[in-house]
Amino acid sequence: MFDEAERGVRPRSVHEIGQDLSALSVSDLDERIEALRREIARLEDDRRRKQASQEAARAAFKF
């Protein structure tokens, strides 16, 4: 009926930098590590696209 976000419950997979990890199982930690790796890859891809765009703009305006 309602998902966790609609009920104000944070999803299990949300990770906050510096949070207490003592209550997490090895499986939970593995899931978070994988999610963070995917997020890092997404950030790196976006950074590469933006950097390429900046370099193209610099080249276009170089006299």
Name a few traits of the molecule.
mainly alpha; about 0% strand; elongated; DUF1192; coiled coil; DUF1192 domain-containing protein
Tell me the helix content. Answer: 55-70%
Tell me the major beta sheet: none
Low-confidence spans: pLDDT under 50, at least 5 residues?
none
Structural class: mainly alpha
Following the backbone from N to C, one meets helices and strands in this order, namely: H
Strand content: under 5%
Number of helices: 1
Distance between the termini: 61 Å
Molecular shape: elongated
Radius of gyration: 19 Å
If you average the pLDDT, what whole number results?
A: 86
Characterization of this structure:
The protein has a domain at 25-62. The protein has one helix and no strands. With 63 residues, it is an all-alpha fold. 56% of the residues lie in helices and 0% in strands.
Describe the secondary-structure layout.
Elements: H1 26-60
Coiled coil: 26-60
Keywords: Coiled coil
Protein name: DUF1192 domain-containing protein
Give the gist of this structure.
Residues 26-60 form a coiled coil. The protein has 63 residues and is mainly alpha-helical.
